Hints:
The structure is a homodimer.
Chain A: H1 14-36, H2 43-50, H3 54-61, H4 64-85, H5 96-121, H6 132-147, H7 154-164, H8 167-174, H9 181-196
Helix pairs in contact in A: 1-2, 1-4, 2-3, 3-4, 4-5, 4-6, 5-6, 5-8, 5-9, 6-7
Amino acid sequence: MSQGLHIAGDEPSERADAARNRRLLLDAAGALVAEQGADAVTMDKVAAKAGVGKGTVFRRFTNRAGLMRALLDHTETQLQQDFMFGPPPLGPGAAPLDRLIAFGCARLALVGVEGEVLRAADASPETRYTHPAHRLCHAHITMLMRAAGVTGDIPLLADVLLASLDASLVMAQLTTPGVDLARVAAAWEDLVRRIVR
Amino acid sequence: MSQGLHIAGDEPSERADAARNRRLLLDAAGALVAEQGADAVTMDKVAAKAGVGKGTVFRRFTNRAGLMRALLDHTETQLQQDFMFGPPPLGPGAAPLDRLIAFGCARLALVGVEGEVLRAADASPETRYTHPAHRLCHAHITMLMRAAGVTGDIPLLADVLLASLDASLVMAQLTTPGVDLARVAAAWEDLVRRIVR
């Protein structure tokens, strides 16, 4: 496992340099999504935002679908770190109910990226329930429901909770007049309280 | 609109004959799904079960995907008739809570057909929320929740309830050791009771 190590020095290694550039580009792409929505993310704009040449973005991610997939992995990984090790209420230290509510709100904040990536990457609906990121989220909210003293069929209740946060569902909800992310987040909190009480 | 009318007589009209044959084939296909699962449905078996030649099945439905789509329409239409006009507890006359529970169980009974059709017909996840059948189910459970005195964001709660019955989710659940349709139905009833109480 020594390949993950390098000796820190004045000059970063090429590997560390590449990782830093990758993070720089994905942060730029994520900022674009937050500012202008996922549809606004183009290879050109990401390059401009990150202050690099367009060729660098293409070399790294091949095409827009590749960029969006990498962005999803990046944001998923960030979310996992936040709910496992980050500050409360998403991370450890808050009451299980509050952590559940925070989890849903954090996932909903990713829906714009997720939905776009699902479209761009032509992700199969069949594989989403077996994806490691999905399993980790399932394990997380199962743990929180047990800690909150929820009774009943907790694994299947966890499926329902995750299904309510599904990107394609939420994207469809957001096209309904009068429905915005704040309202979906409020409905999530209401649902969690009905299940936990 | 006179094209839908015909004069009843000793000899059924060709149109009525065709409709009866179509129903005969779809009933045979539905019976095969119930007995042996959706994977067992082939054009050959449907023809044998209905007592007609294989060519008749191909002329009517073109291929297996066409047959499965027609079967889904057929079963959806049947379900709609049952929950709008059929006997209680699915149809009118039972308490809203009992009708909600019965609705989920009836939908779950269709999951085998639905899941197979979604695969066979390559149905787009984007269109499922705008499909008329989905809208009708949404309107139905929204009405039942209001009648049961549920408070809160009823349209979004209805989305969650329907999402928990989604064919691709339930098919994935059924691949989990220890999970069968009866357990998913019990979880549905539990979920409905948490939302209605």
